[in-house]
Amino acid sequence: MAKYNRVIFVCTDNSCRSPVAEAIMKKINRCENVEICSRGLIVLFPEPYNPKAASILRNNGIILENGQSAQLQNSDFDQKTLILTMDREEKQKLLEDYEDAVNVYTIMEFAGGSGDILDPYGSDMEVYSLFYEAVNEWVIQVEDKLYALNKEEDENQEEEK
After folding, report:
1. Strand 6-11 vs strand 81-85: parallel, antiparallel, or unpaired?
2. pTM of this prediction?
3. Domain spans, the chain
């Protein structure tokens, strides 16, 4: 795997799961010069982020920035961009709908696991808390792997000099 300079978290409508993953990653990010953002597969118009998602982040000391959903574009894909979906169905839809799709994984797949990040939409705050804990755990593993990959690539470039 190559060094990535951008990570895009993707969920269906970019109103809950992917913005939460983005916010967590931004808080723990140790990789210099890596842009972190989130997008949706189906965003008809910009919508505010889910208030329960923002609340659960606030309860964990993280402020959700930007506040509006954004559509994934073909221009978002390149060899230096890592695309992480919340579940296998979203990954499959992304691969089918975007001809330029590269470096696409589910969060769990990239981190070395399997399964899906379930959507808490419409649930109570207890479910959102469980959702936060799961996303936080997987994003930490993603960040650890990304940090190691980027550090290894930097060391290889230094040796080549």
Report:
1. parallel
2. 0.93
3. 6-160
